[in-house]
């Protein structure tokens, strides 16, 4: 990671960090066959993303990383190792610090700042849910205040949290409450809400889209980049999609987006959950990422192999 480009600031002056752009891989958490975290796989994992997929930024301990199934201590150990292995290699290591407990989120936010992460992100609590956008902003504000010099991203994922507040409403006036606010990870399918967020946002914010199968629509709406699980193994192809879009070659961008959709439709028809996704990454990359943690059940090997073969058939050599 590069050093933070943070300037001295008063309470009302925004943090200025490097803007997150391009593809960001939401990393899987390597576990041993017994279900313990396996830090030894993180170094080859970082190298694989850089060398094989051309992906230079990561989002750790999020949904794909089974962050909500890990203890606070496990999340700290993982964040340390991802930051250590990414140092001077990766452009951005963003650490998800959201928890059901405000105190746990604050502890993880402080820790991420201490270890030199490039940013922190927070999901909405989903057991006791915020009833209004203001309630959610207050929660986010309290987490951000624990690490006031860290670029802060709100992570919107209503299908998982059950919190269906519009992101545009959550962003209303957020820079006044959270001077370190730097952007949004929008993992929802409502492109109108996403577009309104883009329209509202100042130029230094990063609007990162999180539904991989409809990235092209979000790019047309003004997304600065994308965070997703499939970029772990589809990164090189989706980099070509983004490059084609940037050059105005929409037919090529569409072709690649449709290929990604074909792969995911095939996977969804077989039953595509995080356990399958994790096993698919192991098949494609050769990394030993292990099983998911309960209550998720391991993926039958033939299912992941079938999807990997379909991926190879559609995209050819990566």
From TrEMBL:
Q: What class of enzyme is it?
A: lyase
Q: Which positions are annotated as binding pyruvate? A: 64, 227
What EC number(s) are associated with this protein in UniProt?
4.1.3.3
Catalytic site residues? 155 (proton donor/acceptor), 185 (schiff-base intermediate with substrate)
Q: Which reaction does it catalyse?
A: aceneuramate = aldehydo-N-acetyl-D-mannosamine + pyruvate
Q: In which pathway does it act?
A: Amino-sugar metabolism; N-acetylneuraminate degradation
- Gene Ontology molecular function terms on file: N-acetylneuraminate lyase activity
- Provide this UniProt record's keywords sorted from A to Z: Carbohydrate metabolism, Cytoplasm, Lyase, Schiff base
Q: Where in the cell is it found?
A: Cytoplasm
Mind telling me which SMART domains this protein's record contains?
DHDPS (SM01130)
Q: Which GO terms describe its cellular component?
A: cytoplasm
Instruction: Share what the entry says about its subunit structure, partners included.
Output: Homotetramer.
- Family recorded in the similarity comment: Belongs to the DapA family. NanA subfamily.
Listed name of the protein: N-acetylneuraminate lyase
* Record organism: Oncorhynchus tshawytscha (Chinook salmon)
């Amino acid at each position: 990671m590069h050093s933070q480009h943070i300037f001295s600031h008063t309470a009302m002056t925004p943090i200025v960090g490097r803007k997150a752009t391009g593809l960001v891989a939401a990393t899987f958490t390597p576990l041993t066959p017994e279900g313990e975290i396996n830090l030894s796989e993180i170094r080859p994992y970082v190298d694989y993303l850089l060398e094989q997929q051309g992906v230079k930024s990561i989002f750790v301990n999020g949904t794909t990383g089974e962050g909500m199934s890990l203890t606070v201590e496990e999340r700290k150990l993982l964040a340390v190792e991802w930051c250590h292995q990414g140092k001077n290699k990766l452009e951005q290591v963003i650490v998800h610090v959201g928890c059901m407990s405000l105190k746990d989120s604050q502890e993880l936010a402080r820790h991420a700042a201490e270890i030199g992460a490039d940013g922190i992100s927070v999901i909405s609590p989903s057991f006791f849910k915020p009833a209004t956008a203001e309630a959610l902003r207050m929660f986010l504000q309290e987490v951000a205040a624990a690490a006031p010099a860290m670029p802060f991203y709100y992570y919107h994922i209503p299908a998982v949290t059950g919190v269906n507040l519009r992101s545009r409403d959550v962003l209303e006036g957020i820079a006044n409450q959270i001077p370190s606010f730097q952007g949004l990870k929008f993992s929802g399918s409502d492109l109108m809400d996403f577009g309104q967020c883009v329209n509202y946002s100042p130029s230094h914010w990063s609007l990162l889209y999180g539904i991989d199968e409809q990235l092209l629509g979000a790019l047309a709406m003004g997304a600065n980049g994308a965070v997703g699980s499939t970029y772990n193994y589809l990164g090189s192809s989706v980099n070509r999609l983004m490059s084609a879009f940037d050059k105005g070659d929409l037919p090529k961008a569409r072709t690649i987006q449709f290929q990604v959709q074909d792969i995911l439709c095939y996977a969804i028809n077989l039953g595509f959950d995080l356990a399958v996704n994790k096993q698919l990454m192991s098949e494609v990359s050769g990394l030993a990422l292990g099983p998911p943690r309960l209550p998720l059940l391991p993926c039958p090997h033939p299912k992941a192999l079938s999807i990997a073969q379909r991926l190879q058939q559609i995209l050819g050599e990566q």
